Amino acid sequence: MPVTAGAMVRAVMIMFVAMSMIPAGDLCGKLLTSGGLATPGFVAWSRFAIGTVLVLPFACRGAWPLFGDWRLWLRAALLSGGILSIQIALKTEPLANVFAAFFVGPIVSYGLSVLLLREPVTLARSLLMAVGFCGVLLVVRPGLGGSANLIWAAVAGVCYGGFLTSSRWLSHLGTPLQLSLTQLSISALLTLPLGLAALPAPSLSTAALTFGSAGFSMLGNLLLLFAYAQAPASRLAPLVYFQLIAAVSLGWWAFAQWPDPLTWAGLAVVIGAGLLSARLRH
């Protein structure tokens, strides 16, 4: 079915909002961990727990049989590892650097999809994935003056790449909201020991940032579903890289943190390779 101009404009606007909300959720998490208000484990668990409560009324019907499928537990474990790792990185590292390193995820997803799901591979896209990985290395710079804690952001990207591939693998099992409920609730269960191990002291600021971390992330990912309902995912894919622009802007606004020249170069390479890859896929 052809996409009307109005639907495409609505989808693009929704994508811009969604891609701003996801870094905003991580900004709230960073304010919690870097300010000593909460541990990365608590931030990860609270995000899943609050997300479960928000989704439950809309997705509980028909979702319960899905919990018996071990593949959904594996998918949730990948998500748990990704969110926990990115919170560890955000505790000390600038928001823009973390998001740039995290974008190793689409590269990992591409490789896994080719190997495990037998998706088509082209030389041009494979070369662009390699170029994108070089951009991530420019940001992380392992052993060459980069921060060791940024490795956690790359680990988060690897976990997220596996999560994306498993999401495509298992997308037929239920509706998007049902699958969201399984990933959130299982992840909340898996991270529960970390969340309860270091409960933060109650305060209005801690509560506001905790709900902001979960709420912004949840709304951002929910808006993605609405955007994809308006226009094909292939046409909206390049807009995912707006997250990097939002992360740079939020990091500057909240912490006066500005990427160094090598990080700017890495950001440019990651965005450029991603946009060209999305264009080839379209």
UniProtKB/TrEMBL annotation:
Membrane topology summary: Multi-pass membrane protein
Keywords, in A-Z order: Membrane, Transmembrane, Transmembrane helix
UniProt key word Transmembrane helix: yes
Domain of life: Bacteria
Ranges where the EamA domain occurs: 13-140, 150-276
Transmembrane spans: 7-25, 37-60, 72-90, 96-117, 124-144, 150-169, 181-201, 207-229, 236-255, 261-280
Entry's localization field: Membrane
Similarity section: Belongs to the drug/metabolite transporter (DMT) superfamily. 10 TMS drug/metabolite exporter (DME) (TC 2.A.7.3) family.
Database matches in PANTHER family: ACYL-MALONYL CONDENSING ENZYME-RELATED, SOLUTE CARRIER FAMILY 35 MEMBER G1
Protein name: Permease
Species for this entry: Phaeobacter piscinae
